[in-house]
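User: My notes are a mess, but here's the protein and fe (ii) ion's SMILES. Can you give me a structure?
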Amino acid sequence: MTFTDFKTYFQANQGHYTDLAWDDPHQLTAHELRAVRASLQTFQRGESSEGHYLYARAKQLGDAEYLAAMRLFIKEEQRHAAVLGRFMDQQGIPRLRGHWLDAAFRGLRRVLGLEHTLRVLLTAEVVAAVYYRVLFSATYSGLLQQICRRIMLDEEMHLNFQCFTLRHLSAGRGGVGAWLRRLAYRALMAGAALAAYATSRATFRAGGYGLLSFGAAIVAEYARVERMQQDGLIAVRGGQPVAPAAVGPVGAWQWPGQQLRAAP
Ligand SMILES: [Fe+2]
Ligand SMILES: [Fe+2]
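Assistant: No problem, the inputs look usable. Here's the predicted complex:
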C-alpha cells in the first residue's frame, strides 16, 4: 500500500455527501437541541480548518503523492464542516467563529513539525471517531444520523491515513525515547478527551455515555490507533491491507451496536 492508494481513495470518496436527505422534515425538539447544540457548534468549528499549516508541514516529506492525498484529506474535513454547518443552519443553530479547544489544537499544531503535528491531529481524530458515534444516538433526526454515519466512515479512513504516515515516519525507532513519546501522547489524548467531554457533556449523556464509558471508548480506540502505528491492520477500504487482520476491539467508527437512545 502507498500514499497513491490513499489519494485514489480520497478522490473516489469526494461525492459521498451529495445524496443526503436534506428534505428530512424532523426539527430537533427542545430536548434534542439542548443535547447537541453546543457540541455541534464546537465540532463544526473544529472541522472547518483551512489546513494551511498542516499542508505546509506535509511538504516536509517531499512526496508529491502524500501531498496530493493530504490536500484531499483537508478538503474532506472541510466537507464535514460544510455538511454540519448546513444542518445547523436548518435547525437554527448559529455557527461559532472560534472556540478555545479548537484554538488550542491549532496553536499546538502551528509550532510542531510534521510528525508531532500528525500526532496531535490524531488525538482530535480519535475524539471525533467516538463523538460521531455518540451523536448518532443522541437524537431522532434521520438526517443527522445519515451525516454521522458518513462522517464516521470518513474518520475511520483518516485514522488509517495518519497511522500509515506515522508508521512510515517513525519506522525503526524504539527505546526510551519512543516510550516517553508514547506516554506524552497518551497524556495529551487523556487531556483532549476530558476537554471534549467537559464541553460536550450533554451530547454524551443523550447518546448514552457517561464519563467512564466515554473514557473506555477513547482508551479502546486509542489502543487500536497505537497498534496501527506498530504492526496492526491498516487498509484502504476495498484494497489490500498492509498486514493481516489483527484480533482486537472494533473501531468506534463502526455501526453502533447499542440500542438507539432517546434524548431525555
Ligand atoms: Fe472530520
Ligand atoms: Fe478526520
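The longest helix spans residues 64-91.
User: Great, I'll file this with my notes.
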